[in-house]
Write a structure and sequence with these properties.
This protein is α/β, with parallel strands linked by helices and 249 residues long. The chain has eight helices and six strands, in the order H-E-E-H-E-H-H-E-E-H-E-H-H-H. The protein is globular, with a radius of gyration of 17 Å.
């Protein structure tokens, strides 16, 4: 489901790139470790990534884009081989420019250059319903430069149906993202609830009497899970030679 605001931005910037779906975790077990499991990174390679404040395409106003971005940066630090530039440094660049958010792919590349980063993660919250069972949609794109990358071809008709921070031309260009991922995390679906339970099992400290269900009733905890899950998908989508469009609900 794509909000009207997201549709308008996709229209403004042209046709967009698509994303794949993450595999649902089918494990119902609760590991006894308290440290988050490292997110595998088989396609992006080692790099330094800045994190932009979240774009709000949800139509709601009951979350803080910078706070959500801080959660994203925190989870990004668990991605193998990745060094993270905090959101505060991106906000400082935007403030000097008299802006509040990243406005386009070319703007994203300007920020990368100023920060001396390899890439910047730009993402949008496309749906937001924090009440149990919560529903959160996230569309994420990673912009930067990677030596020897081959972006291949993109079907503009197929991908224009998807929501993401920026719509892009179908031709290969310097502003094409290195990776992208998009998903709606609907906790009414059993496989999402199982994945939340598995994730909570790796963060048992401080769960209290609610146990793993704290990640369903706490706005911050569920957003953290969603950031972790979208990064898992993003890290496996670095090869853009093919475009996969999946059902997200």
């Amino acid at each position: 489901m794509i909000r009207n605001g997201a549709r308008r931005l996709v229209w403004l910037w042209g046709s967009a790139v698509a994303c794949g779906a993450i595999a649902a975790c089918g494990s119902g077990c609760m590991p006894k470790t308290v440290d988050p499991v490292t997110i595998p990174n088989h396609t992006l390679g080692a790099m330094t990534i800045a994190v932009a404040p979240a774009l709000n395409f949800s139509g709601g106003s009951d979350f803080d884009p910078s706070s959500v971005a801080d959660l994203m940066a925190s989870e990004l630090s668990y991605l193998e081989g990745i060094d993270v530039i905090p959101v505060s440094r991106v906000l400082a660049v935007l403030a000097r420019q008299g802006r509040q958010e990243v406005g386009s792919p070319s703007h994203a590349l300007e920020i990368i250059d100023e920060l001396g980063a390899d890439a910047i993660l730009v993402f949008a919250v496309t749906e937001y319903d924090p009440y149990n069972p919560p529903i959160v949609g996230i569309a994420a794109q990673l912009y930067g430069f990677r030596r020897g990358a081959s972006l291949g071809s993109i079907d503009p008709i197929l991908v224009s149906r998807q929501a993401r921070p920026f719509g892009l031309c179908s031709r290969v260009s310097a502003t094409a993202p290195l990776a992208q991922a998009e998903r709606v995390f609907d906790a009414t679906q059993d496989y999402v609830a199982r994945d939340v339970k598995a994730y909570a099992g790796r963060h048992q400290q401080g769960l209290g009497s609610l146990g793993w269900e704290k990640y369903l009733v706490s706005q911050r905890h569920y957003l953290r899970y969603c950031c972790h899950a979208i990064l898992k998908e993003l890290a496996s989508s670095g090869d853009l030679s093919t475009v996969a469009v999946s059902s997200m609900r």
